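quick one before i forget lol
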Amino acid sequence: MNAKQLIAVSVLAVAGSAAFAQEVTVFPDTPSVTSREEVKAELARAVAEHNVPAIGDLTTVPAQPQVAARQREDVRAEGRAYVRSHHANDIGA
């Protein structure tokens, strides 16, 4: 490799790395309009209502807990009744 090719490759490598160095996102530093006490009160209210986002996923808020339409014992009793009436263990018989 002669000197001209070595210089050309070096220039292209530096130019290519400089292009990557320019890809920077600048976020403006906007001052907060909420006081520290207001933020603490909002967090305490969210914790009391079980409305705090999961750690690492701050873009979604968990859904409110839903009340079951039937109780657990009702479902278990229904399952037991099905097994007794349909012979669930008789596979292929």
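fyi The chain has a mean pLDDT of 77.
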